[in-house]
């Protein structure tokens, strides 16, 4: 199991405590393409942040690649995110001061295992795989929405993560670009055997995945696999 | 190394806000520049003034008096006894330094030390039916030249002419003017002993101090001894030593040995030296105030950048950047502003000094136009730079720390 949760509950301690998700037991195998769906406020994104170690559960535990993460400090969680998890959000969140290639190289620089030329080469390869090889020196604001999202995907793949987590990755795109992004995820799963977990409210997207987890009021109400 | 990544991010973010960066850099630069200018002027004038203090008077003066009245023998015999003596008078000594010739001789043996026996007292100078009372100093012209500035402040004549003229006298410009007494005129000098002597003016000095210019005259030691009726007596030994800063310990050594009161120039000018301490405190507090304002500029820009870059911070954290990495990025920005401000400030400071050095103004009572005496050393630059960097780090610390406390979930949730 690359991701596994046991009884994960997340309660926001505010004036009136808000339960984001409750008693989530979810196991995702390597190479699965999972969509998480549900109505607004059902806790889809909250669950994704918990799986991605951006948030920590109030109860229960999240295991990444078989490793329990309870009790780890912020730096240890960051280290796991850096090596094993790639995020794609609804908004691209590219750093506006850097060009496309530099944005993709940022996580590699933080990891610091590759030389400058190796990082450059890997960045180019990732971009070429997403048909963005000719855009490397452009700034994010010179790209279209779909192109930016592809750069964001390339950045998420920079350190060759085990798991790719996507939060409404097509939520901000037109139907044509949505399809391109969807197809990229499908290809990453089928061709490279990556594990992708994507939160979406689009039925087209959910239909393209092999497994759909449906949330209502913070609980899993349906977990179905398709052939 | 990761700091290079942090540096490149920091530079890119600052480069994106050039105008605001420039304003903060200018704030720091002006602070540093003014600091350099003020402290150069202050320390320059302090050095100049100290120089004058040191050069205008002997470094050490041994006087024919004692610091404390002599202890009564009974107190020496019973140091812890409950003794009270009333109406005792300290023992009377003959005024004058005993055996001054040998003492001067001995001091002069030491390398770099110049010692001169002198006799001072009060006289009245009369000319054209006008009287001016004056302090007379009986000196040795050959040595006095090295002990004080009088020789270089001579308007006319010289101290050396005292030796070649029988009964010569050197007076100040103020006295010359008051009495209408000019070079080679014969003045009448009246001593307390009742002796009246005709003396020839062989030199007129102008040191710029009214008290001295009107009320100080120089004659040969032997003439003073005659005038004051103190044959073979000197009441001062004036000493110059190689390093003026050693004067206090040197004086203390002499006093311990001979018992006569030995005053170093520091002791005599304690009040003025104390004034410098206060003056420096004022300088530094004004400059610190400027730097505080500059620091607020840095605080402002870093805070703004942090506010604006919350999304970037969130994404970097989700990528796996540590909180410390984020803090580093913004600290570096503060330090960069500090460094740029420091470099620019050095330029501004240098420019200000160049400008100030051309200023000339008239001081009342001074005949020549005066300029600022400046301290051209690197010290103000180093201190100013250090001030700037410290202010930058302190100012950037809080916003940088705030940045590291951003919770990515809050930002991403809010943006989606």
UniProtKB/TrEMBL annotation, chain B:
Keyword Transmembrane: yes
Residue spans crossing the bilayer: 21-42, 282-307, 328-349, 378-398
Leader sequence residues: none
InterPro entries to which the protein is assigned, alphabetical: ABC3_permease_C, Lipoprotein-release_system, MacB_PCD
GO biological process: lipoprotein localization to outer membrane
UniProt keyword terms in alphabetical order: Cell membrane, Membrane, Transmembrane, Transmembrane helix
Any coiled-coil regions, as ranges: none
GO cellular component: plasma membrane protein complex
Domain MacB-like periplasmic core span(s) in chain numbering: 21-256
Keyword Membrane part of the UniProt annotation: yes
Subcellular location: Cell membrane
Topology class, membrane: Multi-pass membrane protein
Record-annotated ABC3 transporter permease C-terminal domain positions: 286-404
Lineage: superkingdom: Bacteria
Family: Belongs to the ABC-4 integral membrane protein family. LolC/E subfamily.
Protein name, per record: FtsX-like permease family protein
């Amino acid at each position: 199991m690359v991701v596994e949760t046991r009884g994960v509950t997340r309660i926001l301690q505010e004036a009136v405590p808000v339960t984001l998700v409750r008693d989530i037991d979810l196991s995702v195998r390597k190479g699965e393409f999972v969509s998480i769906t549900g109505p607004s406020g059902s806790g889809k994104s909250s669950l994704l942040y918990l799986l991605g170690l951006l948030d920590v559960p109030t109860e229960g535990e999240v295991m990444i690649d078989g490793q329990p993460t309870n009790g780890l400090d912020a730096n240890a969680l960051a280290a796991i995110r850096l090596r094993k998890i790639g995020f794609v959000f609804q908004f691209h969140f590219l750093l506006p001061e850097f060009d496309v290639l530099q944005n993709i190289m940022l996580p590699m620089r933080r990891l610091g295992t590759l030389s400058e030329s190796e990082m450059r080469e890997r960045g180019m390869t990732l971009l070429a795989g997403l048909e963005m090889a000719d855009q490397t020196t452009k700034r994010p604001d010179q790209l279209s929405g779909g192109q930016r999202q592809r750069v964001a995907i390339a950045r998420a793949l920079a350190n060759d993560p085990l798991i790719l987590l996507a939060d409404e990755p097509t939520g901000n795109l037109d139907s044509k670009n949505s399809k391109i992004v969807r197809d990229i995820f499908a290809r990453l799963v089928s061709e490279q055997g990556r594990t992708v977990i994507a939160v979406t409210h689009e039925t087209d997207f959910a239909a393209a995945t092999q497994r759909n987890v449906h949330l209502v009021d913070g609980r899993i109400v349906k977990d179905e696999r398709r052939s | 190394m990761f700091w290079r990544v942090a540096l490149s991010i920091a530079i890119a973010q600052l480069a994106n806000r050039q105008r605001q960066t420039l304003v903060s850099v200018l704030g720091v630069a002006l602070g540093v520049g003014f600091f350099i200018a003020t402290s150069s002027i202050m320390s320059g004038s302090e050095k100049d003034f100290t120089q004058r203090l040191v050069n205008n008077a002997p470094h050490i003066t041994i006087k024919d008096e004692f610091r404390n009245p002599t202890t009564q023998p009974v107190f020496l015999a019973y140091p812890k006894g409950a003794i009270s003596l009333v109406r005792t008078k300290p023992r009377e000594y003959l005024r004058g330094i005993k055996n001054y010739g040998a003492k001067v001789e001995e001091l002069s043996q030491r390398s770099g030390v110049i010692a001169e026996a002198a006799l001072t007292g009060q006289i009245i100078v009369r000319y054209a039916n006008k009287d001016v009372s004056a302090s007379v100093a009986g000196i040795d012209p050959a040595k006095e030249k090295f002990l004080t500035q009088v020789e270089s402040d001579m308007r006319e004549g010289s101290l050396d002419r005292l030796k070649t003229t029988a009964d010569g006298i050197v007076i100040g410009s103020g006295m010359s003017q008051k009495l209408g007494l000019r070079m080679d005129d014969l003045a009448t000098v009246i001593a307390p002993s009742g002796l009246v002597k005709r003396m020839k003016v062989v030199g007129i000095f102008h040191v710029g101090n009214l008290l001295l210019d009107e009320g100080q005259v120089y004659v040969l030691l032997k003439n003073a001894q005659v005038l004051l009726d103190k044959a073979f007596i000197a009441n001062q030994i004036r000493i110059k030593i190689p390093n003026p800063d050693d004067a206090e310990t040197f004086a203390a050594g002499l006093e311990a040995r001979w018992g006569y009161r030995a005053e170093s120039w520091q002791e005599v000018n304690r009040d003025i030296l104390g004034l410098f301490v206060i003056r420096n405190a004022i300088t530094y507090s004004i400059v610190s105030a400027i730097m505080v304002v500059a620091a607020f500029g840095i605080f402002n820009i870093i805070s703004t950048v942090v506010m604006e870059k919350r999304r970037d911070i969130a994404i970097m954290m989700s990528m796996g950047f540590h909180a410390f990495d984020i803090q580093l990025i913004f600290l570096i920005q503060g330090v960069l502003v500090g460094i740029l401000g420091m470099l620019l400030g050095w330029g501004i400071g240098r420019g200000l000094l160049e400008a100030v050095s051309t200023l000339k103004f008239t001081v009342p009572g001074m005949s020549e136009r005066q300029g600022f005496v400046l301290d051209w050393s690197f010290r103000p630059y180093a201190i100013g730079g250090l001030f700037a960097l410290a202010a930058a780090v302190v100012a950037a610390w809080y916003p940088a720390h705030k940045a590291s406390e951003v919770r990515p979930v809050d930002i991403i949730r809010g943006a989606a």
